[in-house]
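Quality-control log, excerpt.
Job 1 of 2 completed; input and output follow.
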Amino acid sequence: MNDLIAIVLGILRAERVALARGFALAVIVLVMGVALLALSGWFIMATAAAGIAGLGIVFNVFAPSAMVRFLALGRTAARYGERVLTHDATLRSISQLRVAMLRGLLTRPHRALEQLRATSELNRIAADTEALDGALLRLVIPAIAGAITILAVSLLLAWLVHPSVAGILAGGYLLLPTAVFIIGQHVARRPARLAEAGLQAGRSRMVDLVAGRDDLTVYGQLPHVAVQTCGAFDRAAQARHQLDQIERLMGLLLDMVGGLVTAGCLISGIVLVQGGTIDVATAAIGVFAALALGEAVAPVRRALSEIGRMTHAARRVRPAIEAAEPTSETAKPVATGTGLLMQDVTFDVANTSLFAPVSLLVAPGETVVLEGISGSGKSTVLLLAIGALKPAQGRVRFAGRDPALLPPHAMTDAAVLVTQRSALVADTVAANLRLAAPEASDADLWSALEAVCLADTLRPRGGLSLPIGPRAAGLSGGEARRLVLARAILRRPALMLLDEPTEGLDYDTACAVMRGLRQACPQAAILIAAHRQAERDQADRIVPITKE
């Protein structure tokens, strides 16, 4: 619950003006609802009493009826304004929450990021933020607004009717629904967790099923995966059914609370009328106010089915948000005038060195190639160079600083890493390039494409407007590779780390691409994990990577 409170407080701080206005309108809605029903009850009883007494002709019906219309119309307008303000502020905060969670992913160790599955991670982020958007709308604002309204109405009834009626109303509506909520959320915690886990598992498996249906069909696994997917949704449905039963039971208890409070106010009013303390019309105010305040505790029923989901989502979200918060190092830019230094660097896997100690210096304007057999650790050296991994021994310095200790964006502002599996999004060529440089002009984009020998290939096919499908559909492997390299050029990095950049290209094209990279980034220090002759031919030095 502490995690949920912390996130709610953060949203309140970020959107305090809009939420304060929305909260005020929420209180006005409840107060007007109580006033509308109480006034209507008094009006009916007072009119009846006047008619029985033969005073109906002199009884003023216009003022109460006008007030009833005012309250009805005002309540509708206030409800509309409250929904607009609170929903807009909440959705804006949730969108910022999603961005913070994605930023928080960047702080995870590289090995942890390698193990992430995009479908499950995105589904989790979407589900968690979807759960949290109800924390304010269906829990915090209704609870606080309801409590304030109950207290305010009770104080008013103590003055207008009698303190005993006010005490019954305040005690019944503040204590009993709170007890129902505490018991209900404890009972609903486990099925809420199971329902959320089953739903997320089902969504992830459905995405995997659709994306891999061809391979699953070839290997005869499609029916098996389909059964697993349906099983996950079935488990979510069963847990949801348990939650519905709990919600209905707690709803029954809340209805009984409303009935008890109303009956208590009615009995107290009858006793007071018989004692001559108040008249019948005044007693009706307490009874109808008790009926109206049932709206103030109604959100408890909805919150019961979601509080477990909210707390579990907050428990996962809060660490990611805190990890995304900038540190004091963020404000220190990485100098671009010096290169990359590695001294006696090794990396351990299962307490065994992956390669012999590596020492190298890549100065600005130099190209150094890492050469070694497949699996020797060339890609690992690149990850060490950019700070994604920490060396077991030795030291790594870029511009005189340890890249592993820098905040992610401080390093990525000055360096770029092109791995063997760099991704392209399903959009146009221009959109993919502008991921690296959002403000780049079309001329800048064409210049980067020229550098990697891709401009002439793309012009006849739509140029910058050429659409790219999922998983780079519409481009060959070599074209996709060169597009990623063009995107790296647009970063204008001081350090460029490339893992087999010319894979899938013939020798002449590969040499031209390597020359284009150097011409586009003449002062960049370039370190390449290579196994092709074209890459070695363009190197100033070659550093062998060997086993220990």
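Job 2 of 2 completed; input and output follow.
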Amino acid sequence: MVSTCPATHSPPAADPGPLRPPWSARALIAAGLLVAAVAVTWLTFWWIGLSPASLAAGLGDTARLLRRMWPPDLPDAGDVAGMIAETLLIAVAGTGLAALASVPLAFVAARTHRGPRWLRPAAQVVVVLTRAVPTLAFAILFVRIFGLGPPAGALAVAVHSVGMIAKLLADAVEEADPVPAEAARACGAGEVQVAVSTVLPRVFPALTGIVLYRLDINIRASAVLGVVGAGGIGVALQTALGSLNYHRAAGIICVIVVLVLLLELLSVAVRRRTGQQSTGRQNTGRRSTRAGRSGGDTTGTAALPAGRAPHDVGWDRGRVLRVAGAVATGVVFLVSLWSVSPDPGRLSGAWPNLRGVLAGMWPPAFSGDLLMAVLESLLMALGAASAGAACGLVPALLTAAGTTPWRPLSAVVRVLLVVVRGIPDLVYALLFVAALGLGPFAGFLALWISSTALAAKFFADSLEQLDPLPHEALTSVGARRWQAFAAGIWPQFVPSFTGNSLFVADLALRESVVLGIAGAGGVGYLMQESIATLRYDTTAAIVIAIAVVVYAIETLARVARRHLL
């Protein structure tokens, strides 16, 4: 959001900021996206045969399945602890490996890279490809190479996370103050020395937040990797559903939901604490810099790096805690890596499998069936995202601080949304396939539910960041609630609504790729089948098609947000 200056200060004329199209052009862009969303949603409904009657019948079948699953049959405490520990170890090991690999990749992929020119395009290709292909798709491939178990899951988490972490970190590197780096280069420092000594310390708080956020996502992903044999608690869920033991499946789903919710609370608390510390250090640095520029006493502050004040020198309590936290993080990572690593004999046996997979991938074998499956995944994702955005607006208005009619209702709806978001999409798909049968109908319903909860979260956050003055002014002169919303809130909210809806569509497309593994339509079934039948040329074509479609949607979303926000 664009911050506003106080009335006593005039905006600097030399820096007008990024140019945006006029409001009329932005309104036309938003209207065009709305028409496209309605058209895609209608096409999706036609494609999967969705109608009010079929939806009511499907929800009835799902309700009967849920009644069959009650009461949940929880596994033994020892089994639950072992499955949870394995899931967490997979997520931690994969995230740690991705963080180590993402740091050099991000520096090379950033626009500020000064090394060989060919390195940056190569790094960007790696970032795009690993980010576009979902974790579960990598897990299918790595299970074929490394065999069943946690090693395949950890590698799948790591490879997909590399693209995500490197992309966000590259943005932070590009936004870092270039003056210290230029000064180091002027003194003869090499690019590696410049990156380590001047840039990395400044982007380290951002890196910490990115890794924590990615760990939260990876724990959710690790909970269902066992569906394809990649270890974790998902193995027990797949076994229970495969044997029609729905009571045990319900118990395992309850364990997954509780685990995800607890870790989400912990992640939010840690990120908030890290953000406060980072903000405090940045404010201290800005105060010391302003003191130096104003001609004050700079003997102590000017020589210190940004973010340091004279009293920060030495081993105070905060520095001791940070160092202890870093050491503890390293120990946890090494333990998790050791816990999921395969024995040397198994690792050496994976090399022939890897050579066979890579050799069989060229040339890629595109076909009409593949393109139709990709189209089905695309329609499911865009249709579910559009319907989810429309449905998510209602709970967002009920939970946002400025629009909720009753605070207790806001708290109840917010908790409900957190629970719904805590269940992975693949779990929804497995339940709907068990209730409704194979096909894209089950996949659409799974994506619809998750997109609604995710859109509601994003919309509520955006509504709380809007300027409340227009709404309060209209309310004070007697406007009704809906009139104050339509005239005071909605015009401000349209850009955020459009941008967040596109982001939800981007996430839904990544998830729709793997729902076919559960039989819920899309291209995931073809990928699993091609690997099982050793048709790696088809696998390569599927990966390329997924990457192209995901990158195209991501680019569209980025361009639209840049013109709207």
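Post-run check on job 2. Residues 1-20, 284-308 have pLDDT under 50 and may be disordered.
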